[in-house]
Design a protein that fits this description.
Blueprint lengths: L1 H7 L19 E5 L2 E4 H14 L5 H24 L7 H19 L1 H10 L4 H25 L8 H11 L4 E2 L2 E10 L4 H19 L22 E6 L5 H8 L10 E2 L3 E11 L2 E10 L4 H19 L4 H8 L11 E6 L5 H9 L5 E5 L3 E11 L2 E2 L2 H29 L4 E2 L5
Antiparallel strand pairs: 1-2, 1-13, 3-12, 4-9, 4-11, 5-8, 6-7, 7-8, 10-11
Helix pairs in contact: 2-3, 3-6, 3-13, 4-5, 4-6, 7-13
Length: 422
């Protein structure tokens, strides 16, 4: 029940940046009952929406934000009128404490304190300026729990009907259970240093004022070079610790020092950021393995293959020799992967392999000694396999329908219009 409730709340602190609050009056755009929506309310959400919907025109985003805020205010007005719904001071205090603990976990205790100091805030002041907003959010949650959640029942009959309707499109791709021993190409320190120095030279020129964009022609990333080095909107938690560390202290417009990635050295530019979600561009300087690097890696491959022929277990050799830190302690086990999780060349190889067979596959990273543990052909998903996902899909659909019906109903009794209206 709690999980459902959180998924249907229209906005939870929608208009908040880390500590941004409406600390001054702004022009009123729309009145909803006795509540007002200001231009600042819309602007406070704009950067978040830009990150979530890159490429969408700003005017369209503003309209979407305003509509979202109107819907929220309608429910808030109705919740305030409902005398059966109460929010206690203790509930508000507990919710504020939970919110603050979440911020500390998200940003880290040290950065959290730094941000407080930057804004000239104390913990007590932060709570004070958020207290009424939190009370409103709790009112909205309780109102939705009372009037929407009881309607969110999905019967088995509905699920089966939905499955029958869409089962032809519910195809499970071919899957492969594999283990690997990764033998990376390891450039010499001299090779790596030479590429780093090239990246560092470019970084210093950018820091002196030369445009980041002037150096994109030097990037070795063929996929992003011609589109301005754009990596799109990404969660930095998916990156390695070294890259996360290099990015975490940057602001919008900042450029990182050269940082080592899997394929070489990167200079990142932060276009926009919101929490751990960043819009990034980069210039990549690839560290290309030399012929000698590949020969050295192949020597290690041959050593592992010789051990396999002697009967040494694959799992033991993975723990001893694999350069894949994520899987080596698991004996190289990568679990089940679909054909969409793997590159086409690897899939072509796996299709021809028998269970238990071992092959060596080359990638830009190194040599992968792959053992096929099991495989399954593509087929239709059974009802039991997808019923939980279908239930969530139907719940979301029903939630949207019920909230739309609620908002449409509230618009008939609550004024929505010009600010001078009553």
């Amino acid at each position: 029940m709690k999980k459902i409730l959180y998924t249907i709340v229209l906005t939870v602190f929608l208009s908040h940046n880390l500590f941004a609050q409406t600390l001054f009056e702004d022009s009123c755009l729309v009145r909803v009952g006795n509540e007002v929506i200001t231009a600042k309310d819309v602007n406070d959400n704009l950067e978040t929406y830009k990150l979530q919907f890159p490429g969408v025109p700003e005017d369209s985003l503003r309209k979407a934000i305003l509509e979202e805020l109107i819907n929220r205010k309608l429910i808030l007005v109705a919740a305030k009128k409902d005398t059966s719904i109460k929010v206690t001071d203790d509930e508000v205090e507990k919710a504020l404490n939970n919110w603050i603990e979440g911020l500390k976990q998200q940003y880290g205790e040290k950065r959290f304190k730094t941000e407080l100091e930057k804004e000239g805030l104390t913990l007590a002041k932060l709570k004070s300026i958020n207290r009424e907003k939190m009370r409103e959010e709790l009112l909205i949650q309780k109102y939705l729990q009372k009037y929407i959640v009881p309607k969110l029942n999905i019967t088995d009959e509905e699920l089966k009907k939905f499955y029958v309707q869409y089962k032809d499109s519910l195809n499970r791709p071919a899957r492969y259970k594999i283990a690997q021993i990764l033998i990376k190409f390891k450039p010499t320190p001299q090779e790596d240093k030479a590429v780093y120095n090239k990246a560092l030279s470019v970084y210093k020129k950018i820091k002196k004022g030369e445009p980041f964009e002037d150096f994109l022609r030097l990037s070795d990333d063929d996929l992003t070079r011609d589109r301005g080095g754009d990596l799109g909107v990404v969660n930095i938690n998916q990156f390695s610790d070294s890259v996360k560390k290099a990015l975490s202290g940057l602001k919008a417009g900042d450029v990182s020092r050269p940082v080592r990635g899997e394929f070489g050295w990167h200079i990142f530019k932060v276009v926009e950021k919101q929490d751990s979600i960043y819009h990034l561009k980069h210039i990549m300087f690839k560290v290309v393995p030399s012929k000698k690097d590949k020969e050295n890696a192949m020597k290690r491959v041959k050593k592992v293959m010789a051990e396999l022929k002697k009967g040494t277990p694959f799992e033991t050799l993975a723990q001893l020799y694999s350069d894949d830190k994520m899987s080596k302690d698991l004996g190289g086990d990568l679990g089940w992967l679909t054909e969409y999780d793997l590159n086409p060349a690897t899939v072509d190889t796996l299709k021809k392999m028998k269970k238990g067979e071992v092959k060596v596959i080359e990638s830009p990273v190194g040599y992968h000694i792959i053992k096929l543990l099991d495989k399954e052909k593509p087929r239709k998903y059974s009802f039991d396999e997808v019923k939980d996902n279908l239930r969530q899909l139907l719940l979301q659909r029903k939630q949207q329908e019920e909230i739309k019906a609620l908002v449409d109903s509230l618009k008939k009794t609550i004024y929505v219009g010009k600010c001078e209206g009553r």
